[in-house]
Amino acid sequence: MTNLASFVEALPQERVAPVLALLDVLRRHLPEGFKEHSDGRMVHFTVPHSIYPAGYHCNPKDPLPFVSVASTKSQISLYHMGLYADPDLLSAFQMEWNPKECGRLDMGKSCIRFKRPERLTAALPVLSSLFERMSPEDWISVYEAAFKG
């Protein structure tokens, strides 16, 4: 069994369809160059070493993280490092979020939390737009300015 299969198999039944829909949106809307992989606990979309040889500053052996999807006891979590590092991207995302359709935005610095799976499904259009906004090259520039500058 692959790590992705183990991740999906461990999801509560009511989360399978929304998480698979989110992964599909990520695959279709992230600009070319990001690489998908799973460690069995999360699904990650990273900038591979072939594009950014320096890797992640916390552990250069790891590729540069960008977006990750997790499922915990109480929620589905979407981690988007661009939202954490780029105030303009965060502001644009918050302006597009429609609480009437998607519910209240439950967010930390990089984490968007979905306690109800149907909220994730409702948010897929605004997330699609978010994912299209930053290429690997854009993310590298923002990352280097925010974390290595």
Please provide a written account of the structure.
The chain has 149 residues and is α+β, with helices and mostly antiparallel strands. It has a single domain, classed as Alpha-Beta Complex (Aspartate Aminotransferase, domain 1). 49% of the residues lie in helices and 18% in strands. Strands 1-2-3-4-5 form a five-stranded antiparallel beta sheet. A hairpin with a 4-residue loop joins β3 and β4. The relative contact order is 0.18. The mean pLDDT is 95.
Number of helices: 7
Low-confidence stretches: none
Radius of gyration: 15 Å
CATH fold description: Aspartate Aminotransferase, domain 1
Supply the CATH architecture.
Answer: Alpha-Beta Complex
Number of domains: 1
What does the main sheet amount to?
5 strands, antiparallel
The counted number of beta strands is 5
Work out the helicity level.
40-55%
Cross-sheet strand order for the largest sheet: 1-2-3-4-5
SSE string: HHEEEEHHHEHH
Q: What do the pLDDT scores average to? A: 95
Percent range for β-strand residues = 15-25%
Please give the CATH class. Alpha Beta
Distance between the termini: 41 Å
Structural class by secondary-structure content:
alpha+beta
Comma- or semicolon-separated keywords:
149 residues; Aspartate Aminotransferase, domain 1; five-stranded antiparallel sheet; 7 helices; globular
Write the layout of secondary structure elements.
Layout: H1 3-10, H2 13-29, E1 35-38, E2 42-47, E3 64-71, E4 76-80, H3 81-85, H4 87-96, H5 99-102, E5 111-114, H6 117-132, H7 136-148
Antiparallel strand pairs: 1-2, 2-3, 3-4, 4-5
Helix pairs in contact: 2-6
